[in-house]
């Protein structure tokens, strides 16, 4: 990824290179935008709010749909096993490895982004068995905690939506399920392609521990660079240790915002924005 065609062919002689359509001497992204709009329209059929964030990224609020499923479908016999089959957990060893990777390496693809192993493919070793036992915690909590039950139902919704998109449009997608957009985006980026990750409340601290600041949306540009330089921090957990008063003193008006990003508590509601309201273009 992000390698020019000649270099890629040296590494992989059998590679098939696809030419992006062009118009007026520049890349024409019309077909990609159209494809993204089709996906958004499909997701919006079950989402309360649908926020298109880029040509290939969308945030959806499926709270109402998850609650409907909890009322209409069996939790123990249907939703819980379905969510387990479809989802990674954000605090698994594999997820923690993926979270510690830099943003640049994440964009290029890395060893932490692996396909889910089919259950029964291999016997877990002692460490894996111990981790599996430890991860039963969230599933057990979900039997009595409505927040966890809602996330599990949400995971089933996301799994079904991804399957619908692939069946009707031919596109595969990854997903993240969490209580806010920020955590859902982080979870989505942990395991690709064609996978999904649940970020339970009990997993937030493990997910953010060691997470490079540039992996957090809002801190990947100039503000993130300033935060790292002026506060001498490089990870979310380090930023979370900075007193709120110092954050506000160093970055007036942004202290609470930065603290919320560092602790995973920044809750920016999904803004209902399915398609572009206007489109303009110019060339000089």
General shape: globular
Number of helices: 15
Structural class call reads mainly alpha
Residue-averaged pLDDT, rounded? 86
Low-confidence stretches: 117-126
What's the SSE pattern?
HEEHEEHHEHHHHHEHEHHHHH
Tally of extended strands?
7
As laid out across the biggest beta sheet, the strand order is 5-7-6
Report how far the terminal alpha carbons are from each other. Answer: 31 Å
Give Rg in angstroms.
Answer: 20 Å
Helix content range of the residues, please? Answer: 40-55%
Major sheet: size, sense and barrel closure?
3 strands, parallel
SS strand fraction: 5-15%
Features:
284 residues, mainly alpha, two-stranded antiparallel ribbon, 15 helices, 49% helix
Word description of this protein:
By secondary structure, the protein is mostly helical. The chain is built from 15 helices and 7 strands. The protein has a 3-stranded parallel β-sheet. A two-stranded antiparallel ribbon has the order 1-2. It has a two-stranded antiparallel sheet with strand order 3-4. A hairpin with a 2-residue loop joins strand 1 and strand 2. Helix 3 crosses helix 9. About 4% of the residues have low confidence.
């Amino acid at each position: 990824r992000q390698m020019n065609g000649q270099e890629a062919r040296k590494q992989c002689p059998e590679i098939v290179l696809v030419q992006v359509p062009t118009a007026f001497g520049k890349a024409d992204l019309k077909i990609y935008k159209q494809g993204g709009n089709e996906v958004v329209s499909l997701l919006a059929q079950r989402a309360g709010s649908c926020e298109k964030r880029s040509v290939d990224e969308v945030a959806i609020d499926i709270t109402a749909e998850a609650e409907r499923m909890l009322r209409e479908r069996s939790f123990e016999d249907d939703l819980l096993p379905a969510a387990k089959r479809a989802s990674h957990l954000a605090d698994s060893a594999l997820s923690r490895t993926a979270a510690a990777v830099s943003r640049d390496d994440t964009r290029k693809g890395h060893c932490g982004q692996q396909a889910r192993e089919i259950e029964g493919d291999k016997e877990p070793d002692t460490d894996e068995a111990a981790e599996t036992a430890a991860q039963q915690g969230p599933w057990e909590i979900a039997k009595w905690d409505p927040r966890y039950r809602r996330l599990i139902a949400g995971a089933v919704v996301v799994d079904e939506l991804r399957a619908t998109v692939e069946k009707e449009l031919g596109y595969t997608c990854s997903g993240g399920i969490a209580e806010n957009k920020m955590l859902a985006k982080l979870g989505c980026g942990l395991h690709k392609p064609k996978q999904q990750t649940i970020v339970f409340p009990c997993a937030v601290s493990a997910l953010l521990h060691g997470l490079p600041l540039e992996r957090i949306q809002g801190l990947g540009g100039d503000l993130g660079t300033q935060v790292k330089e002026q506060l001498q921090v490089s990870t979310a957990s380090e930023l979370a240790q900075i007193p709120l008063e110092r954050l506000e003193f160093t970055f007036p008006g942004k202290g609470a915002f930065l603290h919320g990003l560092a602790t995973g508590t920044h809750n920016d509601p999904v803004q209902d924005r399915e398609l572009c309201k206007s489109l303009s273009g110019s060339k000089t």
